[in-house]
Amino acid sequence: MTTLTKPSISFEFFPPKTIEGVNHLAEAAMHLMKFHPEFFSVTFGAGGSTRDGTIETVRMLQQKTSLNIAPHLACIGSQREEMLTILQEYKKMGISRIIALRGDLPSGMGQAGEFQYASDLVVLIRETMGNLFRIEVAAYPEFHPQAASAHDDVLNLKRKFEAGANGAITQYFFNSDAYYYYLDDCARLNINMPIIPGVMPISQFSKLARFSDMCGAEIPFWIRKRLQSYGDDIDSIQKFGIEVIYNLCQDLLKNGAPGLHFYTLNKAELSIQILNGLVPIAPALVSSVASHVF
Ligand code: FAD
C-alpha cells in the first residue's frame, strides 16, 4: 500500500433541490474547509437526471470556496454527444478532476444508451480531452453486486486504470479487512494507483440499511443489531455511529490509507466530529494544506 504522510481528505455532496438546500450545503462546505480538503465532489444522476443541478452545484461551490470541485459523471443511459457537451462545459469552468462512473438507471427509465461500463466513459474522456482532467473511478472492496465474480470485479478496476483513470474511491464499508484484502488483490494484478476509502458517517438506521442492501455494502450484524436497538433515538445512533466510523478511519489511516472520502449527504456535523477525533493521529488533516503525491 502507498503510505503518504498527508492523507487527502475529500467530501461528497449531492445537488440540492431547493434554495434552502443550496444554502445549507454552502454552509456545510464552509465548515468542512477547515480540514483543507483536496476536493469537494458533486454527484450526478444517471441518465442526466441531475445534469443541471450538478453543474449549478459545482459552480456554486467553485464561487464560494475556491477549492478544487470534482463533478461526478455517470454515463449509463446517455449518448456520447451529451457526455461531450458536459465535458466541454467543465473544461470552460476550469474543472480539473472528474469522478467517472457508470451509474444505475432507475427502474423503468430508458435504455443503457451508448455506454455500457464506466471504462467506456474513461476511454471517451481520454480520447477527447487528453489529460485535461484527473479521473477518479469507483472501486468495491466488498465487490459490486453485478460483478460476475470477485476476481472479475478487480479486473474491471484494472480495466478502468488501463483506460486512463488516475485513482479510485471505494464504496463505503464498515469492515476494514475487506479493504485490505481488496488492496492485496489489486497488488497481485499490479494495480498501484491510490484507492481511497469512501467513508459513510452513520446518521440513522433504516435508510442506511436499505441503501446498503442495494449497493452491496455489508453492515456487520453487531452494528445492525445495535443501531436497530436504538429505535428512534437519533442521538444514540449518531453517538455510536461516530465511534464506529472514527475507529474505522483510525484503523485505515494507521494502515496507510492514502486518504478518506466522506459521503456527507450534504451535512457537515458528523464528518467534523469524526475528523476532529482523528487530528491527533493525522495532524496534517488541519495543520497544513494536504498535498497528495500520485
Ligand atoms: P462499472 O465500473 O462499469 O462496473 C459496473 C459493473 O459491471 C460491475 O459489476 C463490474 O464488475 C461490471 N463490469 C465492468 N466492465 C465489465 C466488462 N467489460 N465485462 C463484464 N462486466 C463488467 N452513481 C451515480 O449514479 N451517480 C454518482 O454520482 C455516483 N457516484 C459514486 C461515487 C463513488 C465513489 C462510488 C463508489 C459509486 C458512485 N455511484 C454513483 C454508484 C455507481 O454508479 C454504481 O455503483 C454503479 O452500479 C456502478 O458504477 P461503476 O462506475 O462502478 O460501474
Structure write-up:
- This protein is α/β, with parallel strands linked by helices.
- It has 11 helices and 8 strands.
- It has helices spanning 19-32, 51-65, 80-92, 118-129, 150-162, 176-188, 206-215, 221-229, 234-254, 269-278, 284-287; strands at 8-13, 39-42, 69-74, 97-101, 134-139, 167-172, 195-199, 259-263.
- An 8-stranded parallel barrel has the order 1-2-3-4-5-6-7-8, surrounded by 5 helices.
- Strand 5, helix 5 and strand 6 form a beta-alpha-beta unit.
- The chain is globular and about 50 Å long.
- It binds flavin-adenine dinucleotide (FAD).
- Residues 43-46, 72, 74, 99, 101-104, 117-119, 138, 144, 146-147, 152-153, 156, 160, 169, 171, 198, 215 line the site of flavin-adenine dinucleotide (FAD).
What's the short version?
The protein is an alpha/beta fold and 294 residues long.
Question: What labels describe this entry?
Answer:
single chain; 294 residues; alpha/beta; TIM Barrel; 8-stranded parallel beta barrel; 11 helices; 8 strands; 46% helix; 15% strand; disordered C terminus; binds flavin-adenine dinucleotide
How many helical elements? 11
How many structural domains in the coordinates? 1
The oligomeric status of these chains comes to single chain
Give the beta-strand count: 8
- Report mean pLDDT, rounded to a whole number: 93
Tell me, briefly, the overall form: globular
Assign a percent range to the helix content: 40-55%
